[in-house]
Amino acid sequence: MKRFKFRLQRILDIREQIRDEARQELGRRNAVLAHEQSVLGGLEAELLRLNAGENGIVTASELLLTGAYAQRIQKLIEQQALKVEEARKAVVEAQERYIQANKDAKALEMLREKRRAEYDHEVLKEEINQLDEVATQRANSRGTR
Q1: What is the pTM (predicted TM-score) of this model?
Q2: What mean pLDDT value characterizes the chain?
Q3: 53: left (phi over 0), alpha (psi -120 to 50) or beta
């Protein structure tokens, strides 16, 4: 009997490649999100440091400079929060693409396994028939002697 050959193997290979690319893209998007969150955390820590301030004597010009710097940091925090939200959305989109690619690949993998089981069953049936045939021929050859 011929070897098992899954007719849709090329399509399965392509779907597996798409799934792998989607997984890699998801990893990249997660890394970007982690970086953006880290930057945001650093900015928030800087603002906390400024707000904690020093309890010493502060001149009016230092107070103005600190206030202006704190406003700048606050604006950067707001901008960074938007970047974090965009990165989150990109992660969600990448997750959805990965989930769909995984479903597509899994469906063909299950079909291949089903076809393989059917093939194995047919091979087994054929082997049993051949063994029965051999046993019948032996029995007939012994009976004619």
Answers
A1: 0.74
A2: 91
A3: left
User: Could you read off the pLDDT of 94-130 as tens digits, one per residue?
Assistant: 999 999 999 999 999 999 999 999 999 999 999 999 9
CATH number of 9-105: 1.10.287.1700
* Structure tokens that stand for 88 in this block: 């989150």
Give the integer Cα–Cα distance in Å for 129 and 80: 72
Listed in sequence order, the DSSP H helices in the chain are 9-52, 60-143
Sorted by where each begins, the domain ranges of the chain are 9-105
Looking at residue 23, its amino acid is R
Of 105, 115, 110, 111, the closest CA to residue 3 belongs to 115
Confidence band of 142 (pLDDT split at 50, 70, 90): confident
Please compute, for residue 103, the number of CA atoms within 13 A of its CA located in the half-sphere on the CB side: 5
> Rounded distance, CA 107 to CA 26, Å?
21
Least confident of 10-24, 30-44, 58-72, 117-131: 58-72
